[in-house]
Write a structure and sequence with these properties.
mainly alpha, single chain
Length: 56
């Protein structure tokens, strides 16, 4: 948020600010995708356990 404020409001420019914004955006998207995959794996494991309990 501070970097965005520096870039848009104050007008401080430079590659460091842009690279930091890109890094934050990339890591945020990566974390979102990782959590999404982990949730799907958890739901699949719960379904497999319920199916296995029904067989036994």
């Amino acid at each position: 948020m501070t970097r965005l404020h520096l870039l848009l409001v104050i007008g401080v420019d430079g590659p460091g600010i842009i690279l930091a914004l890109a890094a934050c955006l990339t890591s945020g998207i990566a974390l979102f995708l990782l959590l999404r995959v982990a949730r799907r794996v958890l739901h699949a494991a719960i379904a497999d356990r319920a199916e296995l309990a029904g067989v036994i």
